[in-house]
Amino acid sequence: MNTTVEHSETVNWKVEGMTCANCALTISKFLEKEGLKNVKANPVSGEVLFDVVEEKSFDKIEKGIEELGYHVAEKNGVSTRTVQKEPMNKFLRYVLICAPFTLVLMLHMFEKWFHIHWLMNPWVQLGLCLPVYIVGMNFFGKSAWKSIKNGMPNMNVLVAVGATAAFIYSLYGTLTGQAEQYMFYETAATIITLVFLGNYLEDASVLQTQRALNSLAKSQKVMANMIAFDEHHHEQIFAVENNVLRTGDLILIKSGEQIPADCKILWGEATVNESIITGESLPITKQQKDILIGGSLLVDGTVKAQVTAAAKDSVLANIVNLVKQAQGEKPPMQQMADKISAIFIPVVLVIAAVTLTVNWMLLKEFTPALMRSIAVLVIACPCAMGLATPAAIAVGLGRAAKNGVLFRNAKSLELFKNITQVVFDKTGTLTTGNFRIDNWKIESGKSKMGNEQLSTQDSSLTTHEQEFKRIVYSLEKYSNHPIAKCIVDAWKVKDEIRWAKIEEIKGLGMKAVSKEGAVYSAGSYKAAAHATKDESHNIYVLKNNELLGWIDVKDELRGEAKSIITYLHSKNIKTILLSGDRKLKTELIAKELGIDEVIAEQTPEQKLETIAALTAENPTAMVGDGINDAPALAKATIGISLSDASQVAMQTADVVLMNHGLKNLPLSLGLGKHTFLTIKQNLFWAFFYNIIAIPVAAFGFLTPAFGALVMGMSDVVLAVNSVRLFVKRVV
């Protein structure tokens, strides 16, 4: 059946056989030629993402990928296999097929110690080598031919040419009766078997780089206790897979079970461990109307809940998809390696040809010259250059996600290395954002009350005081600002004012017009500067530009704020407090925390200009959480948002701290710098290895068989170095 798409959508496929940067480039170029947009191919995870913007046949695209020598194993998380049992790694399967024949052939190399006369027969060696050569060419040969045909030769070209040269050379000797001078069947078989072994070790090592993301992905697939009602309205509970749950479904979650989907508690209360999302292992208590995040663990209690998002739209699913997309992106450092990888194979083929020619001329013998050129072919490793960056990024992003730090793109990891100053918003970032009314006063009256007198039901309130609260509530209920929300919660009234017009002016506050034409406002000192010289209060309430009264609120500092500032100073990173609040209050907080510089009383437009100026001077990270911060977050070198921030701020930020606070800011900085360091180490090894190994092979200091083994191990070195990021101290 031909499947087409007519609207724009992002497609996520998993492709098997994409083992190096050349493979990823081949697939990317094919998809781009097919008119697909935003193509990202990750050789580490096998993920291929692309946007379809017009009617396209998925069947045609899949067939094209198959013709390139690869296999589409998953489409948007759904396996294409009919049998769901995890298959054996294909390279391990090839090793197990080839190894017995190769091991017997290799005894020929030890003829001084093992006198096996029948093994010296060239026809016996041909019979032992032939199955290995057929299996090898079925994989390496096919892949090499398809890559050449599509104008993007891959690493398998080198292996196929090297193994074929040794096999044909030996076959020529056998057929012409000169077997003693041309017996290199064990070389052909050993190259193929050891490269298969190297590919298997590489797959196993690279799989480790994905373990953090894999553990998150596995947490998406769990069983759920679905609640339904029979014709007698009796409650029935039955087990289903969580991927069949839809928004609105009712589920029962018991103690010790994993929460199968994002949901809202309707009945009961429980203790929940959300460490899979936030990295914070301390359980938190959830009760009626609270949200549960799919993938987290219900430690104690029993709840009935309503599903708020299908599995594919859950918080955890979005995190996994976001990390996958980020892993598929290429930071600037990888672009140079990709350019070299693209021309690497033709260059190595030329070097091998030159090695053969020069050595033949110098040594006057063809056989050793051929062995040296084959050694050059099989020891060269473009995979190392292609995997250097993706392997490190996979581990860095995986560890970050596992610990509650979400990077939206791989570029941010690299940019962290240059950050010299961090700008903090105040409200909701350095403070908790949990405000309470501390004091208030009506300018025209004599009343001044504290917290214990704030109830709207308090009969001791005068008519003026009740009317003041009614005006403030009616204004602030239309604002999303945390201060406004705290006032609304404290001063809720039933007979609110119905405005003819109301609007929120960013940086100033709320402004409304009554049906009688009176103009009311509630906002910062800037809105009341013409009416009073006292700028020490949080909210000023005016009617027709005359001051009615003021309100003071208190916001507690985050417990970790002081230690975070101290940590940044220990790393010689300058700290700046950028706020729309009054200078006096902002300076008090900065002094308490030890922040270097204060920039206060800023409108959103001024914040944007300030961040642009700071970023132009030095690489700058900004941490914020409000709607007002979104433009500034986008303008900074790196924008960092908190998970309890506004959706606009979270969507704009490059990095999201998922643990409801600043605790993981040092981890995000440290992971960024150490991931970049690991990339540099990997690229150094990749280039150093090829620069040293190819001349060593060309001068005859190693055999083709040993070269094949070393080539396979070179990728393992990169993967192991990348995996170190899982346990490496980065803070």
Describe what this molecule looks like in 3D.
This protein is an alpha+beta fold. About 45% of the residues lie in helices and about 20% in strands. It is elongated.
Beta fraction of the residues?
15-25%
Secondary structure category: alpha+beta
* Tally of individual helices: 24
Distance between the termini: 54 Å
Outline the low-pLDDT stretches.
Answer: 445-459
Radius of gyration: 33 Å
- Describe the largest sheet: 7 strands, mixed
Roughly how much helix do the residues carry, as a percent range?
40-55%
Strand arrangement across the biggest beta sheet: 17-30-29-28-18-26-27
Task: Name the shape in a single word.
Answer: elongated
Concise overview:
Helices cover 47% and strands 20% of the residues.
Describe the SSE topology.
Blueprint: E1 4-5, E2 9-16, H1 21-33, E3 37-41, E4 47-52, E5 56-57, H2 58-67, E6 71-75, E7 78-79, H3 90-106, H4 122-149, H5 155-175, H6 185-209, H7 211-218, E8 223-229, E9 235-241, E10 250-253, E11 263-267, E12 270-273, H8 275-278, E13 284-286, E14 291-292, E15 297-301, E16 303-307, H9 315-328, H10 332-363, H11 366-379, H12 382-402, E17 405-407, H13 410-415, E18 421-424, H14 426-430, E19 431-442, E20 448-449, H15 463-476, H16 482-490, E21 501-505, E22 509-513, E23 519-523, H17 525-528, E24 539-543, E25 546-557, H18 561-570, E26 574-578, H19 583-593, E27 597-599, H20 604-617, E28 620-624, H21 630-635, E29 638-642, H22 647-652, E30 655-657, H23 665-698, H24 704-723
Helix pairs in contact: 3-4, 3-6, 4-5, 4-6, 5-6, 5-11, 6-24, 7-12, 9-12, 10-11, 10-12, 11-23, 11-24, 12-23, 12-24, 15-16, 23-24
